[in-house]
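Q: For a teaching handout, I want to show students what a protein-ligand complex looks like in token form. Below are the inputs, and the small molecule is 2-acetamido-2-deoxy-beta-D-glucopyranose. Please produce the holo structure.
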Amino acid sequence: MVRKMHPTLLPPILFRLVALLAIVPFVNTDTSHILRRSLYPSRLRHLRFQQRDVIPDLLEGWTAVGCYTDNVAARTLTFVGYTDTKNMTVDNCVNFCNTQNFVYAGVEYGQECYCGNVISNGGTTALDSDCSFPCNGNANETCGAGGRLNLYWSGAVPPAAPVIAPNNGLWISLGCYNDSPATRTLTVPTAVLGGASNNSVQSCTDTYFSSGYPLAGVEYSRECYCGTAIANDGAPTPPGDCPMVCSGNSSEFCGGPNRLNVYNYTGTDLPPITAPPVEGGGGGSPVFPVLSDLQVGWSYNACWVDNAHGRVFQTEFPDNQMLTVQGCAALCSSKNFSLAGLEYSVQCFCGDNLVQGSVKVPDNECDMGCSGNATEACGGRDRLSVYTSTGSVTTFPIPTVQTIDLPGNWHYSRCLAEPGAIRIFP
Ligand SMILES: *[C@@H]1O[C@H](CO)[C@@H](O)[C@H](O)[C@H]1NC(C)=O
Ligand SMILES: *[C@@H]1O[C@H](CO)[C@@H](O)[C@H](O)[C@H]1NC(C)=O
Ligand SMILES: *[C@@H]1O[C@H](CO)[C@@H](O)[C@H](O)[C@H]1NC(C)=O
Ligand SMILES: *[C@@H]1O[C@H](CO)[C@@H](O)[C@H](O)[C@H]1NC(C)=O
Ligand SMILES: *[C@@H]1O[C@H](CO)[C@@H](O)[C@H](O)[C@H]1NC(C)=O
Ligand SMILES: *[C@@H]1O[C@H](CO)[C@@H](O)[C@H](O)[C@H]1NC(C)=O
Ligand SMILES: *[C@@H]1O[C@H](CO)[C@@H](O)[C@H](O)[C@H]1NC(C)=O
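A: Here is the structure, written as tokens, with 2-acetamido-2-deoxy-beta-D-glucopyranose included.
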């Protein structure tokens, strides 16, 4: 059987072959082992693992690359998948990364799953024996170790590293700008053709060209805004502030949290300004909260504001293109949370209370359909459809600095930035 070889494996193997040819007259059992390993990549996976080597259900095309270094501060695979403290297995992690369209998956520390399209931050091969932790979901498999991951590859060529698209036709990049939900830098939101999962510089600027706006910006991977001018003190920020790839094109950046990549139309043929298309994840049909058909004990609470002062839930799960209210509530329930929140068609949050001073708004502000069921309301832009298993929702105000009632002679000084990795208090 011919297997595709991971490109980073080739040089060491060629090197080993050359080294081997040089010492052929002195072949011993060790080097013949290396020869088998080099000539029969299909045996590679088997031989790279010592006692634990059986990966029964690995998805078609995926193969083991080996044991790699990792670093908590600078990940080898930069997309943090999930931690499963009970049932991490190689195929569970590979399946997860595969559904998120990544070409690499890595299991670490017996319980962690990472995904990526590039081997980043200088991650490199480590001794196989370094990857010594059994997977907590199947002790026959190896799931890395501290600072080590077992890397798997789908066989697909990784897409090119993303760039800030310099232009789309006559739309020219002005770079990364700051933004805030309360005071938008570009004030008019829109839905791009194909929905939030198809957001890109092209789909966003094309949409606004038709609406006649000269400035367009892409934010937080999935969002698209426009305006006639940079508003509300919006100002350029360093390019590294806009690190999120576009939901509809992984080759280019679409802003970041409260950051947008702004484009300026430099042609003279814009049509007159008209209202841009409105969003509505479910395809524009009316949407409703789910009032029955939920799991026992769960009920709808209300539509709540998110992100006015920060996220109001503390736990967010990866975007789900098949999200339903029942699915999110079941997930939160299985993790023993008492609240579930759905936002922007595809986002599921869990928690036990709402923080950052969230407030209730009328149900009709949660106007986007769920990605997995267009008639169910799944929040909106910065709006959460919230479900509870206790019949109520507890909220906490925006946190403030404690300046009174401090013990002894302590008093509050000020808030200091801690730049980079250098600690202010050694
Ligand atoms: C562990 O994951 C596998 C694959 O998803 C699943 O079939 C199995 O039921 C899970 N086991 C537990 C105890 O959750
Ligand atoms: C692990 O391997 C042993 C011995 O081959 C086998 O009996 C057992 O079923 C395996 N366990 C799993 C979870 O695959
Ligand atoms: C995706 O992004 C790349 C880089 O900006 C660009 O060259 C390409 O045309 C884009 N493709 C689509 C379909 O937008
Ligand atoms: C996604 O956006 C591109 C670029 O604007 C467009 O050509 C394509 O038709 C859109 N996809 C869907 C499914 O609407
Ligand atoms: C956009 O480009 C036009 C030239 O086509 C220029 O007059 C205008 O100042 C630019 N706008 C911004 C915000 O840079
Ligand atoms: C689930 O939450 C309840 C109430 O907070 C707690 O008593 C219980 O121990 C938790 N169960 C698990 C499995 O964490
Ligand atoms: C969509 O959700 C509604 C309300 O929960 C439910 O009645 C309906 O059966 C769902 N449709 C599908 C196709 O699952």
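A: Two things your students might notice: The pocket of 2-acetamido-2-deoxy-beta-D-glucopyranose (ligand 3) is lined by residues 163, 165, 200, 202, 249, 251-252 (CB under 6 Å). The chain has six helices and 24 strands.
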